[in-house]
Design a protein that fits this description.
- By secondary structure, the chain is an alpha/beta fold.
- It has one domain: Alpha-Beta Barrel (TIM Barrel).
- The protein is built from 14 helices and 18 strands.
- Strand 15, helix 13 and strand 16 form a beta-alpha-beta unit.
- 51% of the residues are buried.
- The model has no long low-confidence stretch (mean pLDDT 96).
Length: 480
């Protein structure tokens, strides 16, 4: 059996507007949630402020200034061989407050230029409509997705960009890593349940009732938007996006096995069961009852969810963890969540356990469950890169990670999984969502920007740039 990916496979990279665009207050853009979050580190959590303090550093304000470097960056992506670029639209660049009646033309015009540039290079945009940001005004006034009113605001925003870019974008995702909303870590990143909150991101406390009510509003909004797209733009392909944190039972103790099954349902299956299958899963109702969750919903909500199922499933995959019930289980930290340490795996500098075989396993699990096309739209490793005196970056660790995960995907394709695309997270260095750092670098392209805000923004190709270029050119056949 020939080891390669199917013809027409999408190869590319993934970014988020809030982490790399910069130009946070340029051309009418309004402040977004991420613009109120300062920098941090592995040891020190990022902090949120209600008012933006001009004397403090908010790394997302500048990102890596893609806003003014987009043509250069897209040309570099094309040089690597990309035929897909996953990016997001900043909601607050289109509707600065989020609840206005009329969009900001300057913001719409910017994405026209980006999509036109992609098309000129033969790159298909994959666009996330809400990627870990929303206009901060919607937090101040409505407490984010706690309010049902956001459904209508999101619909208006989506209808605006659908009509504007109907001839430039075919592939769309509604909410990035929507399942982070099941826990406190999603309160800032996804659901915006931080009205009036100041302090560390890790200090936010939310109840299951708050989490799942906000998620219900997102499910209804996603369902309505997907249904609208299918009815008005039949050429569109609409997808979901989950943060897939694979977990294994820590031991063969049946109690550990069942604990892991419950965690897999809560973290990895719940949101996609709703968005792919079109209904709340049977196991959800017991969880709701036992955790005091009573969803407020309108009579049409379940129908909106049922008729707004997605065409393809996408997910991020960085690491795996273990789940157990024994007090002596050693813990580790990765991907903004805690899990059990796996003694068979190595970890990155930020504690993320490296598990390429887990990607093959995850792809099989997901495809067996849903039987629709899949994309891995985030995968990568944050690492500390050293620039040599002659301007080189020899990132052999990143190349090794890349090759092992591509090989795992290739095996999954041979297993029968309908995998249609792969976009590496952060093909160019950008601000980390979890820590706000620049030194936690993911890119195949180095950006001269540092945690203290200094830098020239010069772009440099790392060794991994050429490794990925070779993989793409061979359609994944050449991993030597």
């Amino acid at each position: 059996m020939e080891k390669k990916f199917p013809d027409g496979f999408f190869w590319g990279g993934a970014t988020a507007a809030n982490q790399f665009e910069g130009a946070w207050d340029v051309d009418g853009r309004g402040p977004s949630v991420d613009d109120h979050v300062m920098g941090g580190s592995f040891e020190k959590p990022r902090e949120i402020t209600v008012d933006i303090d001009p004397n403090k550093l908010y790394p997302n304000h500048d990102g890596i200034d893609f806003y003014h470097h987009y043509a250069e960056d897209i040309a570099l992506f094309a040089e690597m061989g990309f035929n897909m670029f996953r990016m997001s639209i900043s909601w607050s660049r289109i509707f600065p407050m989020g609840d206005e009646d009329e969009p900001n033309e300057a913001g719409l015009a910017f994405y026209d230029k980006v999509f036109d540039c992609c098309r000129e290079h033969g790159i298909e945009p994959l666009v996330t409509l809400s990627h870990y940001e929303m206009p901060y005004h919607l937090v101040e006034k409505y407490n984010g997705w706690a309010s049902r009113e956001l459904i209508g605001f999101f619909e208006r925003y989506c209808r605006t960009v659908f009509e504007r870019y109907k001839d430039k974008v075919t592939y769309w995702l509604t909410f990035n890593e929507i399942n982070t909303g099941t826990s406190a870590m999603g309160a800032t990143l996804s659901t915006g349940l931080i009205q009036g909150y100041e302090g560390p991101m890790s200090g936010i406390e939310v109840t299951p009732q708050q989490c799942y009510q906000a998620l219900h509003h997102q499910f209804v909004a996603s369902g309505r938007v997907v249904r609208y797209a299918h009815e008005h733009y039949p050429q569109f392909k609409m997808g979901n996006m989950d943060c897939f944190i694979l977990s294994y039972a820590a031991t063969c103790d049946p109690a550990d096995v069942w604990a892991n099954e419950q965690e897999m349902r809560r973290m990895n299956w719940f949101c996609s069961d709703v968005q792919v299958r079109g209904a709340y899963p049977s196991y959800a109702w017991r969880y709701f009852e036992e955790n005091g969750v009573k969803l407020a919903m309108e009579p049409s909500d379940l129908e909106d969810i049922k008729k707004g199922t997605v065409d393809f499933y996408t997910f991020s995959y960085y690491m795996s963890s273990t789940v157990g019930t024994h007090d002596d289980m050693e813990m580790t930290q990765g991907n903004m969540t805690f899990g059990g340490k796996n003694p068979y795996l190595e970890s990155t500098d930020w504690g993320w356990q490296i598990d390429p075989t887990g990607l093959r396993y995850s792809l099989n699990l997901i495809y067996d469950r849903y039987q629709i096309p899949l994309m891995v739209v985030e995968n990568g490793m944050g690492a500390k890169d050293e620039v040599t005196a002659d301007g080189k970056i020899h990132d052999t660790y990143r190349i090794d990670y890349l090759k092992k995960h591509v090989a795992a995907m290739r095996e999954a394709v041979m297993d029968g999984v309908d995998l249609i695309g792969y976009t590496w997270w952060g093909p160019i260095d950008l601000v980390s969502a979890g820590t706000g750092e620049m030194r936690k670098r993911y890119g195949f392209i180095y950006v001269d920007k540092h945690d203290d805000g200094t830098g020239t923004y010069q772009r440099l190709k790392k060794d991994s740039f050429y490794a990925y270029q070779k993989i793409i050119a061979s359609n994944g056949a050449d991993l030597d």
